Amino acid sequence: MSPASGRNALPETMPSDSAAKFASIGSPYFGIMLAVMAVVLILSNIGASKGVAFGPIVTDGGFFLFPLAYILGDVISEVYGFKVARKAIVTTFALSVFASLCYWVIIALPGFDDDYSAAKQSALEGALGPVPQIVLASLLAFLAGQTINSWILVRMKARTGEKSLWARLMGSSGAGEFVDTLIFCSIAASVIGITDFGMFANYVLVGFVYKTLVEFLFVPVTSLVIGWVKKREPSYGAVATA
């Protein structure tokens, strides 16, 4: 081999960007992201029971929380693959169902007979009473939207390898958020106080545009987080299939 060819040859240990790589879930990073993802979804379900209006713009009280769940879903899908992301989605689903059951039990428990306790009971029912329908809407939307988001991201990664991360994040997020928003708004509209088609269309459009825009704006941050996790995840690159 000539000196020139030796200088141009790539080291055998250099990772190839043409192949998709993933990690196993042995380190603490996956557990931390899963916990945060579940908390974000549970809190957004509570916040979503309140209708919010910024002038003509109609949304709900969980609008600033829910996109974070999708950002975490993107990180998990990119680093660990579709099978692990599906486990995270199902686990988050189960924890949200458990939280909803706890709300029902707390509301049903007999309270004191004084006026102060009655006022607290009424406030509790007002805050958490609508949550079961919100949870149903959120969970069905979350399952469908996150699954589509993760599947598209991983399929795109299978084609592009480690390249084109931004394209994967933006392409998968747009599809996932549309499905998520449409399902959620269709089920939860009556609880939030949406009474006509104009308000419903406004709610769907604003929700989709807002969530997608937030994810697009956070793509640089999501990319940095993904890069940070990949560098510190000991098993990254050891798993070749998602």
From TrEMBL:
Spans through the membrane: 29-48, 54-76, 88-112, 132-154, 175-194, 200-226
Pfam families: Vut_1
Record keyword Cell membrane present: yes
A GO CC term assigned to this protein in UniProt: plasma membrane
Record carries keyword Repeat: no
Keywords per UniProt: Cell membrane, Membrane, Transmembrane, Transmembrane helix, Transport
Molecular function GO labels: transmembrane transporter activity
Main location: membrane
Membrane-related topology note: Multi-pass membrane protein
Localization in the cell: Cell membrane
Function comment: Involved in the import of queuosine (Q) precursors, required for Q precursor salvage.
UniProt record similarity statement: Belongs to the vitamin uptake transporter (VUT/ECF) (TC 2.A.88) family. Q precursor transporter subfamily.
PANTHER family tied to this protein: QUEUOSINE PRECURSOR TRANSPORTER-RELATED
This protein's name: Probable queuosine precursor transporter
Upper taxonomic lineage: Bacteria, Bacillati, Actinomycetota, Actinomycetes, Micrococcales
